[in-house]
Amino acid sequence: MHGALDGLLNQAMTLQIGGDLAAAEGTYRRILHEEPRHAAANHCLGMLYVQLRRPAEAISLLLAALENDPREPVYWFGYLDALLLSGRVDEARDTLALAREHGLDGQEVEKFAARLASANASATA
Predict the structure, then answer these.
(1) Which of 6, 101, 91, 100 is CA-nearest to residue 55?
(2) Dist. CA 32–CA 41, nearest whole Å
(3) Helix (H, G, I), strand (E, B), or coil: what is residue 27?
(4) Which of 14, 69, 70, 99 has the most CB atoms around its CB within 10 Å?
(5) The whole model's pTM is what?
(6) How far apart are CA 16 and CA 108, in angstroms?
């Protein structure tokens, strides 16, 4: 079944990149119906919701991806971004600290930390 799900995942990503977001969403949901813990499908559907400016709906999906594969940096960044865009600044700060404990580092981490600091400053201003 994994081969079929991988094919569906590729199809969904192609649809998403091509701008057919409704069809992409439906295809991701088909994958998750078959395998609810599918990390990539959870991540991609979550990022589709972020793309649609519905980050609060993305959080549980992005967390599911991260819980299934915490070694994947893109899953950390997707979850962090959704938290920040949802106004959950404290959770984003705590999650960034946890991500760093799990070895997430580099320029992208520092860019996110700067965005987080800016959001935190705006919230307290």
Answers:
(1) 91
(2) 7
(3) helix
(4) 99
(5) 0.91
(6) 24
